[in-house]
What we know:
By secondary structure, the protein is an all-alpha fold. It is 64% helix and 0% strand.
Amino acid sequence: xxxxxxxxxxxxxYLGDALYEVYVREQLVRxxxxxxxxxxxxxxxxxVRAEAQARIVSYxxxxxxxxxxxxxxxxxxxKCGHIPTHTNAVTYRYSTAWExxxxxxxxxxxxxxxxxxxxxxxxxxxxxxxxxxxSAGAKPEAAPQxxxxxx
Length: 151
């Protein structure tokens, strides 16, 4: 396998996407509140959708090392082929940045730090969702538009 620095941030994000998805699913499976896979899936979406990942980046960025912030920047600036219709370009770029950071940390053997960041991001979202859990059918928090940033 090539070294992490020989791969693009898109490759890091591809791997990071899978790593974060598995982390979220594992956390949810450990909770006895979810009786079936349908409930697990609906709950997982709250944590892995682009808007949630972008909020993690906003929350964690001040707590990241300079190197990690640079990896976020590289991931955010990575050109992507298409942006899903359910989000906007800014949100999608920040979610890609999160996935890139996780993938890079994994590829460079810093799995403990990767897990620490995933745990912090997951806990932040869990607290957010606990305080402001939207009712069924409620629209998620508005994502920033092109040229705006997360507050």
